[in-house]
Write a structure and sequence with these properties.
Structural class: mainly alpha
Mean pLDDT: 85
Number of domains: 1
CATH architecture: Orthogonal Bundle
CATH topology: MetI-like fold
Helix content: over 70%
CATH superfamily: MetI-like
Largest sheet: none
Oligomer: single chain
């Protein structure tokens, strides 16, 4: 019996190792093909040029700027709202049927297809509010998309904090807000940032909700600059500007015949992966610093 159990354990380890090698190997091959095909196309001209009918002259600048500005709006709107909602539901809200209904709804929204959020944003932000197909609309749409993910992961991170920490804070005379802000949130910051990383990584590659609200497939201009030379030196006109994003630009190039446009799409995909890695790396660094500070 003991020999049989050891044999089964060895077989399970072998199957798990093979599955891991197959998944990682496939991912490595796909990423390697993307690098080989797209790396030679990435240069300063590609990064600073507008789209063109000629593949050699086409660039990614409008899509790169659009994705960056949209992720800025998404982060500013979605992350604070999601974290605040999770803290309220977990630490302040009373356990009633209303809060139970909200929790079930939020959990279900985390698994809703992204096209549903696009249709919701089309009816609410475009038609009712009248924001049009703008950067602000796209940012609010993706903020709605990541909101359930941020709420669910933040609540799980807060639940992982031992109750003894709260009791010790209350025993020293701390108020509810002092306990939450000085102890619960700092200790759960690592888990919260993990959820934020996952949410933003999902948002930056979304295409369906962006297409639904009217993103452009070809754009030959940039939005107005956020910083101006005239007082008050800050402009918000760029929020109402038309836009395109990296995934849509990639789809437009893939749809065209010819290997040159396919190379452009591969280069755009490589840039999108790099943007995601940089964003995740920054969040991981912040998480590390916060965890180290809490340890001190």
């Amino acid at each position: 019996m003991l020999r049989r159990r050891k044999l089964m354990e060895a077989m399970f380890k072998a199957v798990g190792l093979c599955s891991l090698a197959l998944a990682v190997g496939t991912l490595g091959l796909l990423f390697g093909a993307l690098v080989v095909e797209g790396l030679e196309r990435i240069d300063w001209q590609f990064l600073t040029s507008f789209p063109s009918r000629h593949a050699a002259q086409a660039g990614i600048l409008p899509a790169l700027v659009g994705s960056t500005l949209i992720m800025l709006v998404t982060s500013v709107v979605g992350i604070p709202l999601g974290v605040a909602a999770a803290i309220y539901l977990e630490e302040y809200a009373r356990r009633t049927w209303v809060t139970e209904l909200i929790e079930v709804t939020v959990t279900n929204l985390a698994g809703v297809p992204s096209i549903i959020f696009g249709l919701l944003a089309l009816g609410l932000f475009v038609y009712i509010v009248g924001l049009g197909a703008s950067i602000l609309t796209a940012g609010l749409t993706l903020a709605l998309l990541i909101l359930p993910v941020v709420i669910v992961t933040t609540r799980e991170a807060i639940r992982a904090i031992p109750v003894q920490i709260r009791e010790a804070a209350y025993a020293l005379g701390a108020t509810k807000w002092q306990t939450v802000s000085h102890h619960v949130v700092p200790y759960s910051a690592a888990g919260i940032l993990t959820g934020v990383i996952l949410a933003l990584s999902r948002a930056i590659g979304e295409t369906a909700p962006i297409v639904t609200i009217g993103a452009l497939t070809f754009i030959a201009f940039l939005p107005p600059a956020p910083v101006t030379a005239q007082p008050p030196y800050i402009s918000f006109e760029w929020l109402m500007s038309p836009f395109t994003v990296m995934p849509i630009q990639m789809f437009a190039w893939v749809s065209r015949p010819g290997e040159d446009f396919a190379s452009n799409a591969a280069a755009a995909g490589l840039l999108l992966v790099v943007m995601t890695l940089v964003m995740n790396g920054l969040a991981i660094y912040v998480r590390y610093r916060m965890r180290k500070r809490v340890a001190w």
